[in-house]
Specification:
Distance between the termini: 29 Å
CATH architecture: Alpha-Beta Barrel
Bound molecules: 3-methyl-2-oxobutanoic acid
Number of domains: 1
Number of helices: 11
Low-confidence stretches: 13-19
Strand content: 5-15%
CATH superfamily: Phosphoenolpyruvate-binding domains
Mean pLDDT: 93
Helix content: 25-40%
Number of strands: 8
CATH class: Alpha Beta
Strand order of the largest sheet: 1-2-3-4-5-6-7-8
Radius of gyration: 19 Å
CATH topology: TIM Barrel
């Protein structure tokens, strides 16, 4: 990996493979201590160059989400994503970054069956993938899994509200408004030992209550402004596709720029203008 980005901007720190023991990644403990201190940004990334761009932008928590299924692998949902895919993409993001905390998503089927499965999957993500922590979907129903994984020393992030791995099988993607259920799920996830919790498409007022109630940071996506942190999918931030979720904000139109650049190249080759 180059330490200089193609636009000439130096990355936050020159890229060096993880040989240098002085280079330490942000820990789960440090993220937990950010509670109420600052609103901190999180972005997803799925490969080395974009991991590098995210880190160079000063975003020090990167999620290798199973949204890789939708935005990179061409699926309509996250359910088909495998543990091996997440491992492959986590390794790439780890290679492209030096200091960011890399949070790896546990894909559907890698933790639901039993605690042993969950622990084995989490260990692979840390040991083979280089992840600093793992994230799994579910509230009270997954508290036992969170306990098993944290019990082995692996930091876990919970994820409640819309849980995309199973949303298509039942309740869909509409905003979650069942206050008591959400509060109970949030409490259970914290009590099980999670160091942070994603609130996906949760009513903003309930998100505020959960954020005030918990001692761990809440990470919002489509859940209003009161969460301790916000996460967005990289492709939505960059405007890679024509459509993005209504709660996301497009900070660029990279998809259109890429198409224009490629069309420019194609035209120059066809017209004999490249090579010049
Ligand atoms: O997979 C993912 O990108 C996620 C975030 C949307 C929270 O789980």
């Amino acid at each position: 990996m180059r330490s200089k980005l193609h636009n000439g901007v130096e990355s936050a720190r020159p890229y060096e493979p993880e040989k240098n023991p002085a280079i330490r990644r942000l820990t789960a403990g440090a993220i937990k201590r950010r509670k109420t201190k600052t609103h901190f940004p999180i972005a997803t990334a799925y490969d080395a160059p974009f991991g590098q761009f995210v880190e160079a932008a000063g975003i020090d928590v990167i999620l290798v989400g199973d949204s890789v299924g939708n935005v990179v692998l061409g699926y309509d949902e996250t359910t088909p994503v495998t543990l091996d895919s997440i491992l492959y993409h986590t390794q790439a993001v780890v290679r492209g970054t030096t200091r960011a905390h890399i949070m790896a998503d546990m894909p559907f089927g890698s933790y639901q069956v039993c605690n042993e499965d969950a622990l084995r999957s989490a260990i692979r993500l840390v040991k083979e993938g280089g992840a600093c922590s793992v994230k799994l979907e579910g509230g009270r129903d997954q508290a036992e899994r969170i306990r098993a994984i944290t019990g082995a020393g692996i930091p876990v992030v919970g994820h409640i509200g819309v849980t995309p791995q199973t949303a298509g099988l039942g309740p869909g993607f509409k905003m979650r408004t069942h206050r008591d259920r959400l509060m109970d799920d949030a409490r259970s996830v914290e009590a099980a030992g999670a160091y942070a919790i994603v609130l996906e498409v949760v009513d903003p007022e309930i998100s505020r209550e959960i954020t005030e109630m918990l001692g761990i940071p809440t990470i919002g996506i489509g859940s209003g402004p009161h969460c301790d942190s916000q996460v967005l999918v990289l492709h939505d931030i960059l405007g890679m596709y024509p459509h993005s979720p209504s709660f996301a904000k497009r900070y660029a139109e990279i998809g259109r720029m890429a198409t224009d650049a490629l069309a420019g190249y194609a035209a120059e080759v066809r017209e004999g203008r490249f090579p010049g």
